[in-house]
């Protein structure tokens, strides 16, 4: 109730337009006309996974998972690293995405990347310049598309859900 009805309606229209555009691009990808990827960072995972105690607070290590999902092939790549290997900086996400594109994306058709509008990860000059540099080197068209804030459900999120479920099952087995 903090925005006007007009602002809310525009927001919902943008959400619907973004989802329709992603669905249209997904159909083009299934037809082999373009490649469509979604990418997102999973919430921080703490390692080791132990019950709270003095040991937990002295030994915890924050781990990060940047997931890339191909909408046509359903192929997934998770880029995992811990806080000693790298931080949550734009250059890390750009490196992951460039690596994925170089290794797994055909260079004969255009590429579309859907993500949320998180400035630290996706919507910044480092990512844009990395993708521009790769596009020029590989002679491919790369388009970044951002979903509407608050409505960024993507296929790569299902991977994060599976990981969470597996971790919960493992935790319950270890405590029983």
What is the topology?
Elements: H1 5-30, E1 35-41, E2 45-47, H2 54-59, E3 61-70, E4 76-82, H3 90-104, E5 111-115, H4 125-138, E6 142-146, H5 156-175
Parallel strand pairs: 1-5, 5-6
Antiparallel strand pairs: 1-3, 2-3, 3-4
Protein name: (apollo) hypothetical protein
Description:
The protein is α/β, with parallel strands linked by helices and 176 residues long. The protein has a single domain (27-175), classed as Ribonuclease H-like superfamily/Ribonuclease H (Nucleotidyltransferase, domain 5, 2-Layer Sandwich). The chain has 5 helices and 6 strands; from the N terminus they run αββαββαβαβα. Strands 1, 2, 3, 4, 5 and 6 form a 6-stranded mixed β-sheet that branches. A hairpin with a 5-residue loop joins strand 3 and strand 4 (76-82). Helix 3 runs parallel beside helix 4. It is globular, with a radius of gyration of 18 Å. The mean pLDDT is 86. This is (apollo) hypothetical protein. It comes from Parnassius apollo (Apollo butterfly).
CATH homologous superfamily label: Ribonuclease H-like superfamily/Ribonuclease H
> For the CA atoms, what is the radius of gyration?
18 Å
Profile the largest sheet.
6 strands, mixed
CATH class: Alpha Beta
| Helix amount | 40-55%
Order of helices and strands: HEEHEEHEHEH
Number of helices: 5
On the 0 to 100 scale, the average pLDDT is 86
**Beta fraction:** 15-25%
Class by alpha and beta content: alpha/beta
CATH architecture: 2-Layer Sandwich
General form: globular
Strand elements, count: 6
Q: How many domains make up the coordinates? A: 1
Distance between the termini: 45 Å
Protein name: (apollo) hypothetical protein
Organism: Parnassius apollo (Apollo butterfly)
